[in-house]
């Protein structure tokens, strides 16, 4: 019996469920990077970054290629970058709605003007 699509999607999103992995994918959405280039941007130790890259490689979201002693990482599909852009838009919409709610709450808490 094959795995249901919803379960495969859940596993896919679990793979994306780590901030370092998201940051790596964002960087690779811009261009190919080496580990040395990503380290200061991701802000984790080299061993931890290597582990996160291994998770992304196993999920077929990134690939690596060796040039001499240097390993370059890239996205396997431009759709990954598109997914990150869509997520950014969704978050912006959600946060915009929350900002409006917060504004309404603050307005409701403001003391009523005194009547003379």
TrEMBL record:
PROSITE patterns: HTH_ARSR_2. Residues 1-95 form the HTH arsR-type domain. SUPFAM superfamilies: Winged helix' DNA-binding domain. It comes from the Bacteria. CDD domains: HTH_ARSR. Keywords: DNA-binding, Transcription, Transcription regulation. NCBIfam families: HTH_metalloreg. This is ArsR/SmtB family transcription factor.
